Amino acid sequence: MNIFGVMTTHKFALAVHGGAGTILKESMTPELEIAYKEKLKDALDAGYNVLKSGGSSLDAVEIAVRVMEDSPLFNAGKGAVFTAEGKNEMDASIMNGKTLEAGAVAGVTNIKNPVSAARKVMEKSPHVMMTGKGAEKFAAEQKLELAEPEYFFDSLRWEQWQKIKDSEKIQLDHSEDKGDVKPSFDVEFNPNPDSKFGTVGAVAVDINGNLAAATSTGGMTNKKFGRIGDSPIIGAGCYANNKTCAVSCTGHGEYFIRSIVAYDISAMMEYKNISLQEAADIVVNKKLVDLGGQGTGGVIAIDAHGNIAMPFNSPGMYRGFVKENGEVEVFIYK
Ligand code: ASP
Questions:
Q1: Contact partners, residue 53, CB within 8 Å, separation at least 6
Q2: Any domain includes 48
Q3: What is the C-alpha separation between 271 and 216, in angstroms, rounded?
Q4: How does pLDDT run across 3-57, given as a tens digit for each residue?
Q5: What is the CATH number of the domain that holds 166?
Q6: What's the pTM?
Q7: Does 6 map to a domain?
Q8: Which atom of ligand 1 is nearest to the CA of 91?
Q9: 83 in active site
């Protein structure tokens, strides 16, 4: 209500990402570029329809992420990369900026839409994060759709893994080796120019001014020993707080965990009283870089006024946004 007792509504908006990395125009075919842009648009349209009809930002980010999880183009859900054991182990998270409730699943192998499992953990359990078999049992109890390993099989992902499976290397699926932006230890960027890219995520503000964020991933190719990245870690790969912003991250998870990227952006806004854009830029282009994370990723972030920031320190990031007027904008390169 405003001072005249009239109901006021907030400007709603939504942003999505489909992964960041060494995504270069010369490595992309026109067909693939169109395919990625179309799928990002589908995700934005799905979320926009929710927000336009007065739905919640939580519903909007969940549905937008589900659209990308259902596409083999992205490293999440159906397109998840392979672990060192030749399996698909997925991580996902979601957060409600109004209540600061959050949910996450990690290392799940048979849940068709891990983001929806994360939401069930948030809403139907007393916990924030569930892993592996326990998370799968809970998802089954919640009547979520499960899928056989074949559903997640993708020949390109399989080839990516074949190239490095006998090594100690782990690989970000959405980068190729340019020699200049490698992280400092045992990660090899993907040398395959037509490889598929990307962890996925969404952030939104709804007409009630409520913020939400969601992130979903297959992690990194050839990951070992139950490795879990930043995506399901609240505060690292996903965070939402109505007081500040909603953030979803993509990139080399170890750097994002150590930098507590998503929460740090929120904390800088809260404690330093700086804008969303400024806070996101400092974390992605300064703090992550100082830690050695140059070239390794980016974020999408939104505040309660519908301002959107999408900084990344890699050559490209699949990303896009839609505001109230319904005009969808999608981008890939810098
Ligand atoms: N952040 C994800 C992870 O490290 C990977 C990605 O964003 O592509 O698991």
A1: none
A2: yes
A3: 28
A4: 555 555 779 999 999 999 878 888 889 999 999 999 999 999 999 999 999 999 9
A5: 3.60.20.30
A6: 0.91
A7: no
A8: 9
A9: no
